[in-house]
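Moderator note: this is an archived Q&A kept for reference. The question asked for a predicted structure of one protein chain; the sequence and the answer are reproduced below.
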Amino acid sequence: MPKLADTLVEGTVARWLKEPGEPVRKGEALVEIETEKVNSELESPIDGVLADVLVKAGETVDVGTLIARIQEPSGAPAKLPLATEKEGPPAAGPQGLSLMRRRIAERMQQARATIAQGACVREVEVGVGADPSLSPTAHFVKALAEAAEVDRVGIAVEIADGLLVPVVRGARQLTLEEISAQVRDLAVRAREGSLRPDEVVGAEFTVTNVGAVGTLMAFPLVPPGQPGILAPGVIHDGRCYLTLCYDRSALNDFQADRLLARIQDQLSTPR
């Protein structure tokens, strides 16, 4: 089982694309792997014959577990790791839930059980809408990056089977136009299922733009391993409710309120 992300500890074999005894060529799609981050179609590392399938479709195993053996043309068994090729569609798991849906539920339970959740809200003015070519989310990503002094900001993207959080990297150094282009590109590829595993790891903070679907205000759970999550509500007449949910072990109430105030200042600063 390959390690497709730095925090990945297990994966599920969704579907074998070859049967034992069938020839395979280097670079040919061999098996679909489903994880909590992305779903990947893995390729054969060599030419040969698929000799043994050791993990059946539907089984979940730890990273590093041998899942198959490929016989080289010489007859010697090869035990090479499979390389990532591209992401495929999610497969259904027990009770009709995909691995992604189950992992989201597990992470939310973990967040509730292990994180002392706090929240603060401000009504803020935002300069969104002046340039319709810019993604509204880009303004919040930039303001958060500057105020919190972070460079890797996750953006929550709802997809058909759950939620993905691809990461905008270098946010403090990027212009609004560059962040907007990244946000739109990551969102499109998240819904197409074509994100790379390294594009959904490493977020230092997350933005979930609940206002994009008309929500006035929301209190999302803080993702494990992050100090907080920013939730802008729907923008009306240049104003919106901006919620900062935070881990009280990382930020006390005063620090969180000051951070939200700095984000507010950044939003009102012309760029």
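Archived answer notes: Confidence is low (pLDDT under 50) at residues 79-94.
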